[in-house]
Amino acid sequence: MNNTLPDLPLALKSLFTGYIMVVGLGLLVAGGQILMTHGQADGKFGISVNDIVYSYYGDRTNSKLENKLNGSMKDKAPVEERTVLIKWARDGADHAEFKSTVKPIVEQRCAMCHGHKHMMMSLPDITQYDTLKELAQSDKGADITSLTRVSHIHLFGISFIFFFVGYIFSMAVGFNKWVKSILIFVPFAFLIVDVAAWWLTKLNPQFAWMVIIEGFGYSLAATVMLFTSLYQMWVLPYLKTESPH
After folding, report:
1. What pTM, to 2 d.p., does this model score?
2. Which end of the chain is more exposed for a tag (fewer CB within 10 A), N or C?
3. What residue intervals traverse the membrane (predicted)?
């Protein structure tokens, strides 16, 4: 069997194309998810250095609750109710006021995702006073436990994606062997530095720019490999057939 993309049998082309389509869609959805979470950490749409700083280092001038209500959770409650929650956090998170004023708002606006009956992806149950009081403290960004969990999921999960993307691209033709090898290796290197940059930003906000650069770097390399693979499997053989001899 010929191990170049243009000469692969139809069954393998179909297999690789299906994988590429799903992975490509997954990368787009992941980008959208980042825009809707980290991308709104500063209250504005789009990824910025401030978004990364607030997500990992935190905005320590305010509480995490206030930053969330003015950022990614801004559309979850009207301004009047968000103001009540923010004022409660600023005034010291009083327990009696939580029961009389804050908890009804939380149960109506937040419990569908942050309640004990509808926990999603280990989100905190903020219908409980102790949990919400902790969020009313100074925002120090991602905690070590969640950062460790996300790091290992990111490293294991995305490395599998890049392995198969690189394997398919390794059959591409027309590339210098060093250029091809570098393109295959780049996403793995950028992935490692990306996760390292999360931890560095947690310690020092000056490293936030690294997170943006590394994420863009491995996304670009993966995009080049995905589109090149599709082109060489389906377009290049047709061009060879149509070209004059």
Report:
1. 0.81
2. C
3. 16-36, 155-175, 181-200, 207-231
What are the φ and ψ backbone dihedral angles of 244, each rounded to 5 degrees?
-70, 145
The residue written with tokens 């994988």 in the block is 19
Q: Which distant-in-sequence residues (6+ apart) come within 8 Å of 8 by Cβ?
A: 1, 2, 16, 171, 233
- Residues of the chain with pLDDT below 70 are 1-2, 116-122, 242-245
Q: At what angle do helices 144-169 and 177-203 cross, to 10 degrees?
A: 170
Query: Residues 141-193: pLDDT tens digits?
Result: 999 999 999 999 999 999 999 999 999 999 999 999 999 999 999 999 999 99
Whole-number Å distance between alpha carbons of 6 and 239: 10
Domain residue spans of the chain: 5-40+142-242, 60-135
